[in-house]
Write a sequence for this structure.
């Protein structure tokens, strides 16, 4: 029985127990007001609540088991969508058949539109297809890569899909599973894909036409490993490029102030700041409207991933909040400043 069916049956059973407890509770109150004996109804209410509690416990356990299956993924491929995509069990079954050229029985694919399981040759794969943001830590680190197309994709994606290996037979390497996952991801990925991510290789890229052939290759993981984050590149806590560049950006802040004060309409001025809300923090870009020697005012350039600040909202910041700045000339010329990109590029080169 699939996870979604179990959850639906347990939820229905809980609602029936709740309805029974409420009915007997109202009946008990009505009889008590008339002076009639209600002790037998007290037992029925208590029994209904006890059974209902057991059903809700089982409901929560099913959710935890499904989440645990996803959390223990050994290997995965992730695609970010430009707009939310519908995925059905039948659609996944067809993708497996066409991608791998095999016959797939109906019971090999189970689940619902947002969470599916696919079994093949003693392998089990979990497919998540979700609206909204992907893992915020992964997105945060990806924003530091020197790829303007990727950053644009990360700013505008609206959903994501992951295909994850959660079980495989003894004697077979985890890397071999990418030969099964890759072609299936290629079949499921249409024109709405905006980015591709291999977590095991640290690989991020804006979606390209060449990715279809990459995913269908004999060893997709090996294809991307040389383009991922180098093994000896240590990513410190927070935004790597910001941490490497913040000191330089702040020490050269007078240059930004001078340029802004003598600005014309052919340049745009941006500052990246640390923005906090409760325990959450992000490093968004502000489009600068006012500037002083030790402070600035700007508006949020894009929607934040975890904070409640809307795009276009005016933000005041001090120099100690500044982690990067950038002056963008007209006509597509290279930006001035942008120390985060330079720092990360140097780290890769070193």
């Amino acid at each position: 029985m699939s996870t979604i069916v179990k959850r639906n049956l347990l939820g229905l059973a809980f609602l029936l127990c709740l309805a029974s407890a409420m009915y007997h509770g109202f009946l008990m109150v009505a009889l008590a007001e008339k002076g009639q004996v209600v002790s037998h109804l007290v037992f029925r209410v208590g029994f209904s609540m006890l059974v209902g509690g057991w059903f809700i416990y089982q409901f929560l356990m099913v959710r935890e088991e499904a989440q645990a299956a996803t959390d223990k993924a050994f290997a995965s491929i992730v695609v970010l969508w430009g707009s939310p995509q519908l995925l059905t069990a039948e659609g996944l079954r067809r993708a497996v058949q066409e991608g791998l050229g095999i016959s797939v029985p109906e019971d090999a694919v189970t689940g619902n539109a947002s969470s599916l399981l696919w079994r093949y040759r003693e392998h089990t794969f979990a497919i998540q297809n979700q609206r909204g943001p992907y893992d915020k830590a992964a997105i945060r680190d990806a924003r530091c890569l020197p790829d303007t197309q990727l950053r644009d994709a990360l700013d505008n994606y609206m959903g994501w899909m992951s295909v994850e290996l959660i079980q495989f037979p003894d004697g077979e390497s985890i890397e071999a599973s990418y030969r099964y996952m890759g072609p299936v991801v290629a079949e499921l990925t249409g024109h709405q894909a905006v980015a591709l991510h291999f977590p095991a290789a640290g690989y991020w890229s804006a979606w390209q036409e060449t990715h279809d052939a990459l995913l269908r290759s004999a060893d997709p993981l090996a294809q991307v490993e040389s383009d991922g984050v180098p093994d000896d590149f240590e990513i410190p806590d927070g935004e790597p490029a910001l941490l490497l560049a913040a000191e330089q950006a702040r020490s050269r802040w007078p240059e930004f102030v001078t340029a802004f004060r003598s600005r014309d309409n052919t340049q745009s001025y941006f500052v990246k700041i640390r923005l906090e809300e409760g325990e959450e923090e992000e490093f968004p870009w502000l489009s600068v409207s006012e500037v002083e020697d030790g402070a600035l005012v700007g508006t949020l350039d894009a929607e934040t991933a975890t904070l409640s600040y809307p795009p276009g909202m005016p933000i005041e910041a001090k120099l100690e909040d500044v982690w990067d700045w950038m002056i963008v000339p007209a006509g597509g010329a290279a930006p001035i400043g942008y120390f985060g990109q330079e720092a990360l590029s140097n780290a890769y080169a070193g």
User: Anything to note?
Assistant: Residues 240-349 form a domain with the SH3 type barrels. fold (CATH 2.30.30). The chain has a mean pLDDT of 79. The chain has three domains: 3-71, 75-225, 240-349. The first strand starts at residue 75 and ends at 81.
